[in-house]
Structure prediction request, 294 residues.
Amino acid sequence: MNADSIDTTLVDTILATFSQVFSSLFMIETNRGKMSFKTDDFDGYEVAVVTGVIGENHEGVIAYRLTESTARDLVNAMDMEDEMSSYGEMFFDVIGEWMNILAGNISTALNSQGTKLYISPPSIIHGSDYTLQLIQMAPLMVEMRTPAGKIGVHFAIKKIFHKDLEIHS
Amino acid sequence: MKRTILVVDDARVMRNIIKSNLKDNDEFELFEATNGQEAVKQYDEIKPDLVTMDITMDVQNGVEAAREILSHDPDARIIMVTALGQEKLLSECIEMGVKDYILKPFSKDRIISAISKALNGGSAK
Prediction:
């Protein structure tokens, strides 16, 4: 993805859906921050969630990066019974549910606009010493600001043409 | 007499959210299962008044579990709980006789209203 090939409809729909789901799930509002093609803005953030994307006209990856502190706040916001003490155990549960719900909502929102897209279940990376290298393109990074901290949404999605591909949702 | 509700979801956080939304209501006694197979076993043992059933679960998914429960008890009150994007599976569930469905993320009002409606005889079909 580069400045000439940004699918703004796709990016806008995904970010709008991100905000809606975030607000419903965590009761936390988000604001769109800066946008860039720099890949290292979120280096050092301890949590990365990577989802694959495949559709009639697109393929690639969407990755979300956040700090452990932000993740902890989200776990506490979503889990109403076991605050703080169960963070470790609830971490994958909460991040996994969030991403599954987000994937379904994004697919449905795009489908209603005529864009068929399947989003894979999330892969979650948790740790301080990793490098996130997305497919051979400069990913577009959009910063989403929340009271719990910044979340980097990285889009590495390219347009394709599959003559015979059918996506069933 | 308390109404018994079996909450079925493989994600503990979702079970906690549903329980937390219902715990202020003294009318409900809550049970949990973490997959479809456990749900079928518990249903046969407890005979709950209502089941909230996630669709995507390991071991046995919610659609298969709902089908099995309804084959044992055609009057079972089951509410499917799922994310968007599972419309075909939801249609299948409604056809087989589940009472309602709830889309994640849901509000407290939505889940309480769906449960009240199902317990009082309402149906999605």
